[in-house]
Amino acid sequence: MTKTTDNAQQATSHASSAGTPGKNVTIRDVAKAAGVAPSTVSRAFARPGRVNEATAERIYTIADEIGYRATAIRAHTDGEHLNGMLGIVVADLSNPVFAEYTRAAQHECLSNGFGLLVLDSEENAIIERTSIHTAIQHIDGLILASSRLSDAGIRKLAQTKPLVTLNRSIRGIQSVIGDVQDGLSKAVEHLVSLGHRNFTYLSGPESSWQDGVRWRTLSSICSRQHLKLRRIPSNAPTFSGGFCTGEPFLNNPTDAVIAYNDIMAIGFIAALHSRNINVPGEVSVVGIDDVQFSSLVSPALSTVRLPRKELGTKAVDEVLGLIHHTKPANDRKPIMLESSYVVRASTGKANPSLVSAIHV
């Protein structure tokens, strides 16, 4: 309690020295008030999973106190002419997750008399930036789905066109996010009920905001329950990326694995099968997304289900609200849509004796 009070008093003091709350308050002001480096503040907002949870919470509290980004960014529109077209930037159109976002967004656009321009960034910030620059004059608003751009780059875009981020939270920018908290909690609860106590997380892209949130959420859940958790980096959030995590996993195996997404989980299972390791007999595996073919692979994949159709639809509704000025221009809080957990055949009872016998 004393620590929280001290933080609030410190923040109030810095708010006075920084000027009117919400105006001219910078990352450096927040860093000074929180007693951390500016780079730590930047990471706390852009990649929350890369910052200690207590430190991140202190940074958020102080940022609110001194008014950092307290006012939403206002997008510029000329108010005279609309092109009748929205744009959506996806990280990888070959990934069925982004295909579903796009389809849901397109249906909602059509029902509102708008077309949809789809841009595939190929998980590359340079391609993303270039494609947006080419398309920006032809669209009235923009949805960034799992953007790889920096916060500063997205803020600059938002000053040019009405903009909504999908699965990326940036203060002052309206965002729509699939909240993995409930789904991951239920997944871990289910695995624990099967006797699992040791977990591995197969990570997503280093630049992914979602990966940071998923890792931080899972770490918090496991910490509260005194469960062991380790992280294996991957080179891509793809089948191949998941397959390549098989070898480092087998160097130090655990009896349960949760992957950044379903496609990686399926690739990882293929790697285990290639070494005659049984799933779920020796290792239980859980994905995140619940893409359509997750129920068709063998074994059918247990997974955290995200409401992709609702996310895509809501993102369009929000950006249209900005275009038509029907949304209030105050500080925009993230819109969170809940996840759930689907039990299938890739999870089973823990068998530590089998795990200890696994070798590459």
Mean pLDDT: 87
Q: Biggest β-sheet, characterized?
A: 6 strands, parallel
Task: Spell out the helices and strands N to C.
Answer: HHHHEHEHEHEEHEHEHHEHEEHEEH
Give the percentage of residues in beta strands: 15-25%
Low-confidence stretches: 1-22, 70-74
Question: What's the N-to-C terminus distance?
Answer: 50 Å
**Radius of gyration, CA atoms, in whole angstroms:** 22 Å
Annotation, overall tally of beta strands: 12
User: How many helical elements?
Assistant: 14
Helix and strand content put the structural class at alpha/beta
Global outline: globular
- Percentage of residues in helical conformation: 40-55%
Question: How is the largest sheet built, in terms of strand order?
Answer: 2-1-3-4-5-11
Can you characterise this structure?
The chain is α/β, with parallel strands linked by helices and 360 residues long. 44% of the residues lie in helices and 16% in strands. It has helices at residues 2-18, 27-34, 38-46, 53-66, 96-111, 125-135, 151-158, 181-193, 209-224, 239-244, 246-251, 262-274, 308-323, 352-356; strands spanning 85-90, 115-120, 141-145, 163-166, 174-179, 198-202, 228-232, 256-259, 284-289, 302-305, 335-338, 340-342. The chain has a six-stranded parallel sheet, with helices on both faces. A six-stranded mixed sheet has the order 7-6-8-9-10-12, with helices on both faces. α12 (262-274) links the parallel β8 (256-259) and β9.
Sequence-ordered SSE layout with sheet pairings:
Layout: H1 2-18, H2 27-34, H3 38-46, H4 53-66, E1 85-90, H5 96-111, E2 115-120, H6 125-135, E3 141-145, H7 151-158, E4 163-166, E5 174-179, H8 181-193, E6 198-202, H9 209-224, E7 228-232, H10 239-244, H11 246-251, E8 256-259, H12 262-274, E9 284-289, E10 302-305, H13 308-323, E11 335-338, E12 340-342, H14 352-356
Parallel strand pairs: 1-2, 1-3, 3-4, 4-5, 5-11, 6-7, 6-8, 8-9, 9-10
Antiparallel strand pairs: 10-12
